[in-house]
């Protein structure tokens, strides 16, 4: 076993239509928080796992899309723990909170802002100091450097909002003072993974400027078009990172 142990990828919008995990075998994992759809790659010596966070609810079925505010994050993080996962790579589609980082840029944040209360614990065990795993972050950065990805930012703050709607222009003006990219999932995943003693870090693809940042109003059509445009870059990055995890 490598120093990363068993590895899982949690994907979102940027991997919704990816072919990267087509050969993975679907399985349902039961947890006390709900049943989860997990995909397993049985071709690797150390068996990578994949969860599509928007389609992980086994009660609803893999065809049902779950927006961020109704996703059962406790269930899919717990499912990965029950499968002996040690390292989690989060993959997220995000908006840019700064004009400096345009669409198509990959960001590996080193901090996050999130005032949502997401925890497994209602006692003193919840008093943890949250952070992305620096060990995993550095591996991600090394892998991206070796692929020659030009538009890569190796630090920054991820700001999480509740969703499912995008932010107003006024909200963006305020939130841009707090961080560099904005999303709806990764910070909560990081906290839950830490509570269950798993290393978690995230790679973010900027698929849009936050609403009003560069003038005009963000449209869903613009967002979806950029997700499609950047899909191949995300796939290449994820594959390179997985290869780096399993180097001996």
Characteristics:
Rossmann fold, alpha/beta, 248 residues, transferase, eleven-stranded mixed beta sheet, Nucleoside_phosphorylase_d, single chain
Question: Structural class of the secondary structure composition?
Answer: alpha/beta
Question: Percent helix among the residues?
Answer: 25-40%
| Tally of structural domains | 1
Output the helix-strand order.
EEEEHEEEHEEHEHEH
CATH architecture: 3-Layer(aba) Sandwich
Count every beta strand, where a strand is a DSSP E run of 2 or more residues.
Answer: 11
CATH-level-4 superfamily name = Nucleoside phosphorylase domain
* Tally of helical runs: 5
Q: Mind describing the biggest β-sheet? A: 11 strands, mixed
How far apart lie the N and C ends? 9 Å
Multimeric organization: single chain
- What CATH calls the topology is Rossmann fold
The residue ranges in which pLDDT falls below 50 over 5 or more consecutive positions are none
Mean pLDDT: 92
InterPro entries: MTAP (IPR010044), Nucleoside_phosphorylase_d (IPR000845), Nucleoside_phosphorylase_sf (IPR035994)
GO cellular component, one term: cytosol
Keywords: Glycosyltransferase, Purine salvage, Transferase
Protein name: Nucleoside phosphorylase domain-containing protein
């Amino acid at each position: 076993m490598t120093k990363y142990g068993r590895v899982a990828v949690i994907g979102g919008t940027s991997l919704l239509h990816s072919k990267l995990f087509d050969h993975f075998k679907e399985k349902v994992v039961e947890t006390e928080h709900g049943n989860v759809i997990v995909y397993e790659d049985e071709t690797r010596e150390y068996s990578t796992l994949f969860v599509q966070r928007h389609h992980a609810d086994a009660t609803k079925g893999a065809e049902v899309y779950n927006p961020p505010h109704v996703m059962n994050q406790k269930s899919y993080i717990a499912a990965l723990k029950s499968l002996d996962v040690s390292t989690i790579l989060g993959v997220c589609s995000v908006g840019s909170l700064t004009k400096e980082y345009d669409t198509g840029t990959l960001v590996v944040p080193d901090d996050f802002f999130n005032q949502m209360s997401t925890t497994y614990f209602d006692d003193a065990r919840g008093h943890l100091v949250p952070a992305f795993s620096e060990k995993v972050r550095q591996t991600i950065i090394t892998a991206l450097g070796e692929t020659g990805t030009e538009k890569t930012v190796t630090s920054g703050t991820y700001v999480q909002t509740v969703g499912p709607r995008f932010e107003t222009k006024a909200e963006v003006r305020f939130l841009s003072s707090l961080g560099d990219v904005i999303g709806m999932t990764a910070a909560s995943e990081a906290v839950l993974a830490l509570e269950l003693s798993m290393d978690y870090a995230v790679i973010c693809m900027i698929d849009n400027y936050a609403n009003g940042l560069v003038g005009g109003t963000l449209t869903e059509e613009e967002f979806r078009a950029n997700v499609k445009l950047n899909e191949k870059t995300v796939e290449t990055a994820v594959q390179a990172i997985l290869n780096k995890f399993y180097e001996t």
